[in-house]
Write a structure and sequence with these properties.
three-stranded antiparallel β-sheet, alpha+beta, globular, 15 helices
């Protein structure tokens, strides 16, 4: 199985058909491929690979002007580059392997039942129920699975990018025990970080739009930190300092991380242990992330939550990168003169238990050019704030409803609090989920703020009316008003 020539990337062609393509065909047929057909975290991992190949093949682009002139070069140069490095993209074999350590071996421990136990390959798929993984996307809850080589490839790539930190097994690499003493840090893409990609008309166009220039790399990472893809400088041991520095501290090196040391034994079993540590933000910022200032003026990456839809943070994402702050680096090439399409998404883990996966999230947005202006961002942000004010009023109304309905007594305070919290969460979910359906109305105000007047009169706008009716509908749905007692509480 070679990633360059054998099909493994799930895609949708422009005629609507689904298929698997190789890396070669992802570029050769990229003008006919409409999109990827994968989960959110898999999309991020595949796009990092495609962008890395294209950037290495172009050795740039160095400037905005070079980027503008490079679209017709991306496919051909990437294909030639892949043919040159094809032997580094093997999934199995005794020589070079893609994102694997061929000299890795299990640490055998004698037990009463067996000598050694390798890790099931299902551990590489973060959506499957295996080991300590939850049954979030999969109810089979079995470790006896036989994966196709195509599926194994996608699992391996995504796991290296998104594996959450926690306890992990140990292995031997060239006779030395792997790093971490049985524990591991987050892979570079995880930690609930929101990733943003510009969407093009085809897969090759999307890859082109998400390239960054060496000039932007120098501003963000410093001169000399462009780097090489990992297959051009694969570490030979745990002490290969030059390769480790390239892999963990440069732009191209980090696009395909070696956060875990892995060796595929077959299509069912693997050897899995900790890999190399990748300095997180603010030491290094991944190119697809958004850097913001929190209320306490501390710099942080914009993160996703199961309780907060990404559209509520859109005004932060589209800030053009300046002084290492702002949206994804690819947006630096957008001059704000045309509309663009954005994809955002990530893998969400539990805050107090990062190894526990909660969900995946993704959203697509059509961004009007005016949202890149200061006025446009301000209008959008104030529109989100207005919806949040209605949400707060909704919470207050629910509290009054339950107070009247249950006629609070001292000995029932805990019960009332529990009911209130549960009902607030239920109604808030309905309010914000439905509110997303009206985002186009808010974006219409960005394109033409005339209906707001000089006083930013959101309540009188179409967005305002939509948000008000949504709040009333959520309250009506969540607070029954059939009996006389319920009607009295509802009216209060």
């Amino acid at each position: 199985m070679n990633l360059v020539t054998d099909p493994w990337i799930p895609v949708i062609f422009d005629d609507g058909s689904l298929s698997l393509v190789s890396l070669h065909d992802a570029f050769a047929l990229g003008h006919k491929i409409r999109d990827l057909s994968v989960m959110p975290h898999e999309r991020v991992a595949i796009m990092r690979l495609l962008v890395c190949i294209a950037q290495a093949a172009l050795d740039g682009p160095s400037t905005y002007e070079e980027w503008e002139a490079s679209f017709n070069l991306v496919a051909d140069r990437s294909i030639n580059y892949l043919l040159k490095w094809q032997d580094s993209f093997e999934l199995f074999g005794a020589n070079k392997r893609f994102l694997q350590i061929t000299t890795l071996s299990a640490i055998h421990k004698e037990t009463k039942k067996t000598k050694a136990k390798e890790t099931p390959a299902s551990k590489l798929d973060l959506a499957l129920a295996t080991g300590h993984n939850a049954t979030l996307f999969d109810n089979a809850a079995t470790e006896e699975r036989d994966f196709s080589k195509a599926r194994l490839t996608l699992m391996l790539l995504t796991f290296q990018c998104f594996s959450p930190g926690g306890r992990i097994g140990k292995a031997n690499w060239n006779g030395e025990e792997t790093l971490g003493n049985g524990s591991s840090n987050h892979a570079p893409c995880t930690g609930n970080i929101i990733h943003t990609l510009i969407r093009g008309e085809t897969l090759v166009h999307t890859t082109y739009l998400n390239l960054i220039t060496k000039a932007d790399s120098d501003i963000t990472y410093g001169e000399g930190f462009w780097g090489k893809p990992i297959w051009e400088q694969m570490p030979s041991s745990l002490h290969d300092e030059l390769a480790i520095q390239n892999m963990t501290k440069t732009y191209l090196g980090r696009l395909l991380p070696l956060s875990r040391t892995i060796l595929l034994l077959n299509q069912q079993q693997i050897i899995l242990a900790n890999g190399f540590s990748y300095p997180p933000y603010p030491a290094f910022r991944e190119a697809t992330t958004t850097s913001i200032l929190k209320k306490d003026k501390e710099a942080s990456l914009l993160k996703a939550s199961v309780n907060k839809a990404i559209w509520r943070e859109l005004h932060s994402i589209i800030v053009l990168n300046k002084n290492k702050m702002g949206g994804p680096l690819s947006l630096s090439k957008m001059n704000g003169s045309q509309d663009i399409d954005l994809w955002t998404g990530t893998l969400i883990t539990k805050i107090d238990n990062p190894a526990k996966i909660l969900d995946t999230v993704e959203s697509n947005f059509h961004i009007p050019a005016k949202l890149f202006t200061e006025q446009g961002r301000e209008i959008y942000e104030k529109g989100v704030i207005y919806a949040n004010e209605l949400s707060i009023k909704l919470d207050h109304s629910i509290a009054i409803y339950l107070e009247k309905l249950l006629k609070i007594k001292t000995d029932r305070t805990k019960q009332i609090k529990a009911k209130t919290a549960h009902l607030k969460a239920k109604i808030a979910l309905h309010f914000w989920t439905t509110a997303q359906n009206g985002v186009s109305l808010l974006l219409d105000l960005v394109k033409d703020p005339t209906p707001l007047g000089t006083e930013n009169d959101f309540p009188s706008s179409q967005w305002g009316h939509f948000a008000q009716e949504n709040a009333k509908a959520a309250y009506t749905l969540g607070c029954p008003h059939c009996t006389s007692r319920q009607i009295e509480a509802f009216a209060a």
